[in-house]
Amino acid sequence: MGEGSPTEVYFYHLETRSLDDVLPTLLELSLKRGWRAAVQAASEERVAALDTLLWTYREESFLPHGTARDGRASSHPIYLTAGDDNPNEAHVRFLVDGAMLADASPYARVAYVFDGRDQGAVAQAREVWRATKAEGLAASYWQQDADGRWQKKA
Q1: Is the distance from CB of 3 to CB of 58 less than 8 angstroms?
Q2: β-pair partners for 58
Q3: Distance CA 128, CA 130 (A)
Q4: DSSP E strands: which ranges in the chain?
Q5: For residues 68 and 76, is the Cβ–Cβ distance under 8 A?
Q6: Cα–Cα distance, 138 to 140 (Å, whole number)
Q7: Full-model pTM
């Protein structure tokens, strides 16, 4: 996917805002880059909640997306799933709620989004960081500042 370049792995550490506040913006930025996106959650119930969120997060707009339940998965610019499938040939994959991905290589970027107030999520992110570095993938760590803007920390 990355034309021979290694997958970039971003770690987004949520501190001042929730996933529901942040994810739509990250997806909008991905679409602006011309990327298709996949969002992998830990359960089908969470996929359903994210599906509702992307339709309603802003009164004047929505993010075009779909799930396996909607059919025509390959036609959706954003695909929501609880599995490791990639039927829309996404360029970027967002992993939320502790979802894990076995193989990052099909993507230009993989983004682990984790809640800094959840010690289990922080510990899991640290493990994934170490494994990512050990694989030789380009990793960067992003943390929210007091205003909720992302600052690259590592």
Answers
A1: no
A2: 61
A3: 5
A4: 8-14, 37-40, 78-81, 92-95, 109-115, 138-144, 150-152
A5: no
A6: 7
A7: 0.91
Q: How many residues does the chain have?
A: 154
3-class DSSP state of 78: strand
CA dihedral 93, 114, 141, 84 (to 10 degrees): -20
Q: Strand pairing of 138-144 and 150-152? A: antiparallel
Residue of 41, 96, 87, 94 lying closest to 68 (CA atoms): 87
pLDDT tens by residue, 23-82: 999 999 999 999 999 999 999 999 999 999 999 888 777 888 988 888 788 889 999 999
For 67-111, write each residue's pLDDT tens digit: 888 878 888 999 999 999 999 999 999 999 999 998 898 999 999
Distance of CA 102 to the CA centre of its chain: 15
Measured between alpha carbons, how far is 154 from 152 in angstroms, rounded to an integer?
6
Q: HSE of 48 in the Cβ direction (CA atoms, 13 Å)?
A: 4
Q: Using alpha carbons, list the distances in angstroms from residue 53 to 19, 21, 27, 61.
A: 11, 10, 12, 12
